[in-house]
Amino acid sequence: MYAAKQLNKSNWQQALDHIFSIKLIAKMPEFSNPAFRELLQTRFKETALKAFLCRAARAYESFSLASLSESFGLPTQHMLLIVNRLILRGKLQAHLERDLVIMD
User: Fold this and answer.
1) Distance between CA atoms of 76 and 78, rounded to whole angstroms?
2) What CATH class has 2-103?
3) Where along the chain do its domains lie?
4) Residue 87: which of 63, 67, 70 has the closest Cα?
5) Which of 3, 5, 12, 89 is the most exposed place for a label (fewest CB within 10 A)?
6) CA separation for the pair 92, 77 (Å, rounded)
7) What is the chain's pLDDT, residue by residue, as a tens digit (104 residues)?
């Protein structure tokens, strides 16, 4: 529950640290695989980004892809894919203009 609350606040690192600190989960064989850990970290970052965009859309007029990339540790091209999906699915009222996400 704590990890979900942290993700909703876009604190992906704290959420991930909490998941990795749970002893029962840490004993699972998947968690010893570095590729699985990296995949999980990427998914946490993506989820935190989505939560941030949906939550902050009311407060901001635009976001720089570079600043979002820096904040969430995701490559710009990966972020473009995520933002485009949110827009196409109607979950984010915005459009892309050069390196900006403009809120509608």
Assistant:
1) 5
2) mainly alpha
3) 2-103
4) 63
5) 89
6) 18
7) 999 999 889 899 999 999 989 888 878 888 888 999 899 999 999 999 999 998 888 888 998 988 999 999 999 999 999 999 999 999 999 988 888 888 87
Pick from 80, 42, 46: nearest CA to 63: 80
Q: Three-class SS string for the chain?
A: CHHHHHHHCCCHHHHHHHHHHCHHHHCCHHHHCHHHHHHHHHHHHHHHHHHHHHHHCCCCCEEEHHHHHHHHCCCHHHHHHHHHHHHHCCCCCEEEECCEEEEC
Model-level pTM? 0.86
